[in-house]
Amino acid sequence: MADEVKKGLEGVVVAESALSHIDGDAGKLVYRGYTIEDLARDASYEEVLYLLWHGELPTRDELNSFSESMADERAVDGGVMEIVRELAESDSNPMAALRTAVSMLATYDPDDSDSDPADREANLRKGRRITAKMPTILAAFTRIRNGDDPVEPRTDLGHAENFLYMLNDEEPDDVLADVFDQALVLHADHGLNASTFSAMVTASTLADLHSAMTSAIGTLSGSLHGGANANVMRMLKEVDDANQDPVEWVQDALNEGRRVAGFGHRVYNVKDPRAKILGEQSEELGEAAGDTKWYKMSVAIEDYINEEKGLAPNVDFYSASTYYQMGIPIDIYTPIFAVSRVGGWIAHVLEQYDDNRLIRPRAKYIGDEDAEFVPLDER
Predict the structure, then answer these.
(1) How many CB atoms lie within 10 A of CB 153?
(2) Which of 120, 226, 259, 352 has a 20 to 30 Å separation from 322 between CA atoms?
């Protein structure tokens, strides 16, 4: 029916895309035809960015050139860093700070003021700058609010490795760097999720790339989209602090009407394939540290919720303990999500610009039809 309302646009197909495909019944995710398992195991985040933006995996020479061009853009202009410092010292929300800084990057981008919003080559340059600078902004914000000086980015480290270096002022070991790189790959794209769609709506007006990314970050900040992994870790810490069996804790929480974070997904009807990989990472990190309690706690909760509620964990459920065991502060989990997903956002915006039509849905009107206007003095 023409006037049928689809709340949340559920089941509505609004675009064609060659970027990522989700089979919710089979628990399958692919980027441009490559399974997420293959990419997480064998491809770096830079390779995945190249794949999403250019349509094919790079050769070694292409990857080297692309990675170098990304690394060269990591430094952030002084004016932006002043704002980052002000936001950090005023204890701003990390997502609000990241959104503000990314918006401000447009002021300093050499392509922004005069370029056609849909100029693909200009947008690829802008995309490299935004993607390269977001980790620098987030790491600086996190350090400044803790009373530490920002760490300048290095060009001789990979994207994931450099972020951990800027965050902790020391090079991560190979295990940490590899796990974090895999996490970035797993979060890089995921169909037409809310933040991606938000970016596309903004781009469809022929607004610039920075505006589209700012829209996406704002959308990701909502607890129903990007905030679940932080809520999962807070839940796990609450279980641990209570010194209670995790299954008993979950039973009590459910009896109190509380929601157990990290379960269920709008698209997947089975276990999120990314959760499987992140679960393995969580276990690996726990074994390396000699303490697998977070992983074991998570498995116990997963098994119970699956048996009692028929729900499977989503990507947030195991990313929580993975990040926590890496020493990453809980309240920057969602900004890290943005640091990764920006690659997918940019890819979808490029597709939108290439075949643009203004996204303008309609609403079914349910208000009054023939209200009689009463003059102000007679009301």
Answers:
(1) 22
(2) 259
Q: Which amino acid would we find at residue 321?
A: S
**What CA dihedral angle connects 50, 51, 55 and 58, to 10 degrees?**
70
Residue 23, SS3 per DSSP? strand
Cite the beta strand spans of the chain per DSSP E.
20-23, 28-31, 34-35
Q: pTM for the complete prediction?
A: 0.94
Please tell me which residue in 178, 225, 240, 331 is annotated as part of the active site. 225
Which among 159, 210, 265, 348 is annotated as catalytic? 265
Which residue in the list 109, 111, 316, 348 is annotated as catalytic?
Answer: 316
CB atoms within 10 A of CB 26: 11
Full strand arrangement of the beta sheet holding 34-35: 20-23, 28-31, 34-35
pLDDT, tens only, 17-27: 999 999 999 99
Residue type, 232: V
Q: Please state, in angstroms and rounded to a whole number, the distance separating the CA atoms of residues 256 and 254.
A: 5
- Joined tokens for residue 63: 């990857």
Active site annotation includes 225 = yes
